[in-house]
Amino acid sequence: MEIDHPRAHRSACLKITLGLLAIWFVVSFVGGILLRDLLDANLPSIGSAPFGFWIAQQGSIICFVLILIAYAVLMNRLDKQHGYREDK
Amino acid sequence: MAQGTLNFIFIGITFAVYITIAFRSRAASTKEYYIAGGGVSPFANGMATAADWMSAATFISMAGTVAITGYDASRFLMGWTGGFVLLTVLMVPYLRKFNKATVPDFVGDRYYSKVARGVAVVCAIFICMTYIMGQMRGVGVVFSQLFGIGIPAGVLMGAAIVLVYAGMGGMKGITYTQVAQYTVMAFSYTIPAIFIAMAMTGNVIPQLGLIGNYNLNGEVVPFLEKLNNINLELGFQEYTSGKMSTINMFCITAALMCGTAGLPHVIVRFFTVKDVKAVRKSACWTITFIAVIYLTAPTIGAFARVNLIENLHSTPYAEAPEWFSSFEKTGQMAWVDKNGDGAIQYFGPGKSNSNSNSVFIGSGPAYPGDDAPDSQRIGPQGQRLLANEADLSNPNELYFGNDIMVMANPYMAGLPMWVIALLMAGCIAAALSTAAGLLLVLSTSISHDLMKKIIKPDLSDREEVNYARFASFIGLAVAAYFGINPPSAFIAKTVAFAFGLAASSFFPTLLMGIFSKRVNREGGIAGMFCGIVFTSGYIIYFQFLGGKAEHLFFGITPEGIGFVGMFINFAVTFIVSAFTPRPPTDVQEMVENIHIPTGANETKQNDFEI
Q: Which residues of B touch A68 (CB under 8 A)?
């Protein structure tokens, strides 16, 4: 397939990257560190663990896995839309 | 069967597997030596990267750190996993497209400068060397315990094994051995956790046990509440709340994340897969495999802490479990009977006015020599006596190292002997896999980037690989020397150094090199230089020259300063680049090109048989 509009591909790629990094930042830094005490106090516990504590020790790691899966899926779809594929 | 024999069998079997794999997949060409031929499956590379990433220290000590500091240890849990998000979305797909064998290669080409390449080589060597010393020490300690030989002999034995398969097998040999090593590590880490979770909480899945109920001896309370109560009762801070300042916690986590994304031995692992699409897939596997261990670490830490306290606190020494004395022998645990009541007491800093809970004076336990009279070596209860003076400012009598939470865990929970043997094999796998990966980066940085690209450009490929093998030999010899004579205080402090350096040099320099067409040679070099000088200056001042805690910049400890150094690098690079000429057109084209996800193998590398 013809390879076209690398610029459009690049800006769409940047959007995906920044979007996922925003989630990454909110979960780990905002949820696990900056607003932890607020979350501990105001959100329901996960099992018997305070919400912020659980995010910092378990939830954030689970989110990282999901973020990377989302990255792979979204980027592969984007490449396909723009006609980038390895020739067999 | 004795525990010793069982350990021996388990480790013997795993070694036989590693060596067989290394032999069958030894490198036959330069491309196989550097990047395993570039055709490793994403799944296998994910496992190999996870094994490479988890060092002996992570494997043995991380759960202990969580157990002792509770919430505060989250900085390591998040820092060492979150870094992979940065690594995957910002770095490796683009560097893979660039299609070269090493990280300094990219720095040298993108900033079209031998100086930049040289700085990158020095950083890569320093980071690898720092790490590998600790690995060799870890191997030595485990071997000496297993075979009853001295630590020096244990270190040399480990070094010989690593040399065989890293030197001979190159990246290809290392990759497939690491796959086997990850498997051993994952089982040996999670199986004890599952057993203990079942015993303490009735939950098969440790992660659910952690947030579930504690129900041993008919008592049912939420597990974390139980842990908090124990901690408060004994004078520690509440387990689920930390005492570290928020800004420091933020900076350390960020420095560990950015450092992770800039570590050369992790980045090169992704050069071994087929194309950019495979890189993304491989990153998913990597983070999944790492998460298996990192999600288990906090559970082991929490369970082991409760177990340890229930087993030992207020227990007369004479009735203490058998394993306690065996860890006394190795110096990993110690008891100083301060009040002379014959019972072990464990207290936190909250129980004294001195706000410390140190058992003795000095940084680690010291023992009288074998020639000392028995009265100096063996106490009235039969305990092993220390040469250190007791610290009488507080009532705490129990000393234990961070590694005890993993090493003593199966004993505390009364698990079968084969679990302990498996754990030993896991420790060795963790140390060997990391040492081999680092050694490869170390040797290729020297042979490829230093010798071929800077000093002797007319080097043939065969000679280059021979240089790499020779460099691995020298690198291992140096690492083994420091493994035998550890500058112990130094090793612990240099971890801050390795991550600080990676966060303030490689991470920002690679990132700008990938995403900006405007940054140029002058900016890149000036930025790296300022970032490194600031970060290492700060660390050296506060770690080695006795800088006072009240002079810390916003209270940021040296572990977190790489994050500030990173911003200095960014700022200097942009400002200097703005006032100097644009990079040449071919470099600008190169930057355009690495953003196109296909054709990662079009720029053919020369590949020669060796």
A: 84-85, 88, 283-284, 287
Question: Does B330 lie in the same domain as B300?
Answer: no
The Cα B169–Cα B432 span in angstroms is 14
A window 40-59, beta carbon within 8 A of B = 40, 45-50, 53-54, 56-58
Q: Are residues B426 and B404 in the same domain?
A: no
Residues of B in contact with A76 (CB under 8 A): 277, 280
- Report chain A residues whose CB lies below 8 A from the CB of B249: 33
Residue A79 at interface with chain B, using a CB cutoff of 8 Å = yes
In a domain, B476, yes or no: yes
**Is B213 found in the same domain as B245?**
yes
Contact B83, B260 (CB under 8 A): yes
Residue B350, Cβ neighbours under 10 Å: how many?
15
Specify if B30 maps to a domain: no
ipTM entry: 0.90
Q: Within a domain: residue B599?
A: no
pLDDT in tens, B565-610: 999 999 999 999 989 888 888 888 888 888 888 777 665 555 555 5
What is the domain range of residue B329?
308-412
Contact status, residue B253 vs residue B79, Cβ threshold 8 Å:
yes
Cβ-defined contact of B596 to A84 (cutoff 8 Å)? yes
Across chain B, which has 610 residues, the per-10-residue mean pLDDT values are 80 87 81 82 92 85 84 89 92 86 86 88 86 80 73 84 80 89 91 87 82 76 82 81 84 90 89 88 93 92 86 83 80 82 83 79 78 79 81 84 80 83 87 88 85 80 82 88 72 72 90 88 90 87 75 78 91 91 85 80 56
- Residue B203 is encoded by which pair of tokens? 């939950």
Residue finishing a domain among B387, B412, B437: B412
> Which residue among B85, B207, B596 places its CB closest to the CB of A64?
B85
Supply the DSSP string of B494-536, one letter for each residue. HHHHHHHHIIIIIHHHHHHHHH-SS--HHHHHHHHHHHHHHHH
Based on the fold, state whether residues B251 and B377 are members of the same structural domain. Answer: no
B295 and B367 housed in the same domain: no
Judged by CB atoms closer than 8 Å, whether chains meet at B212 and A47 is answered as yes
Residue B352 in 3-state DSSP? Answer: coil
Asked whether the beta carbons of residue A57 and residue B77 sit closer than 8 angstroms, the reply is yes
Based on the fold, state whether residues B18 and B89 are members of the same structural domain. Answer: yes
| Residue at B222 is within a domain | yes
Q: Do B82 and A75 touch (CB under 8 A)?
A: no
Cβ pair B90:A17 closer than 8 A: yes
Q: What is the pLDDT of residue B427?
A: 86
Residue of A nearest to B282 (CA): A72
Residue B485, min C-alpha distance to chain A (Å): 36
Residues B51 and B161 occupy one common structural domain:
yes
Q: How far is A38 from B27, CA to CA, in rounded Å?
A: 55
DSSP conformation class of B29: B
pLDDT (tens digit per residue) in B88-120: 999 898 888 888 778 888 888 888 888 888 888
